[in-house]
């Protein structure tokens, strides 16, 4: 048997003392576990309490009203005032080609002729028949006056003469159809036929376009009918010539609004003395509507475009700034506000609601801001704010 546990005094510890010691040890362990957790949370809370939203450096400008011309804009396609794909009315073999690709031609100029074949011989035959019919008619008419022939004979001769002359005119028209002429003056395109080629009726030989003046077709919403009218001045720009404007005026407004798009077609005419503009070009159209208005304008970089609404950040002073702020210590904060935008002009956009003249607006650096973020202002570099920006030359 195992000997019983005894103390130094030779006595066995009581169950009560062992229970007390165990509870003390458990209490110490629990204190260490939960006490450390509580201490950690307290220290984390104190650390987070010392953190502040760091100041952000931004560029600002003072909002002010400027004269802003309302403009109606659209896109359109340039078309020739007169343009056609030239083709032959009859079939035949190409006999002569009297133009070069890209050449300017005059109205009535012969461009292509087809082989005449026996057209001249047939014409001579028909003319001889018509001549004989005329002689017969004149002789019988004289005989009629001498009461040698009846009126019926004269009427038959007159009908034969008219038929013979009509056949001559028909042959002349057929021969004319074998000559393709320019229906108007303009610039002809790339030649699509060759000498000796069989040309079927309706086959295109080239495109002829009148380049000066030149028209542009574009569409505007139906609401524009109250501000747009014939004779209004338009400015047109095309990518090929950068920002160079081409002046023109509205010459026609369609008589009906499209039931599909609720847009109305407008046609304007431009002068094109150097033949720079060509039919088919994509172009942008700007029309000045109404009188200039005084509105607040800001650089487009100041606007935060969002699906829930467009916003800007205004800079406002803190309500309780320190009396002696430390260096680089912000005393202003950013306030986010919703704005209603108008039309754009160059680098600028019109602000219809949300910003008043005199407000200090963040124009650069707002992407890192939150509402009420402290800000430091540095206007050494500000974004472009020109109504008519120009691309600098290299």
Task: Classify the beta-strand content into a percent band.
Answer: 25-35%
- The shape, in one word, is elongated
First-to-last CA distance: 107 Å
Helix content: 10-25%
Low-confidence stretches: none
Order of strands, main sheet, comes to 3-12-15-14-13-16
Q: Provide a count of the helices.
A: 3
Structural class: alpha+beta
CATH topology of the domain at 56-67 and 293-377: conserved putative lor/sdh protein from methanococcus maripaludis s2 fold
Largest sheet: 6 strands, antiparallel, barrel
CATH architecture of the domain at 56-67 and 293-377: Beta Barrel
Q: Estimate the mean pLDDT confidence.
A: 86
Q: Write down the CATH class of the domain at 56-67 and 293-377.
A: Mainly Beta
Compressed to H and E, one letter per element, the order equals HEEEEEEEHHEEEEEEEEEEEEEEEE
- Tell me the number of strands: 23
Radius of gyration: 47 Å
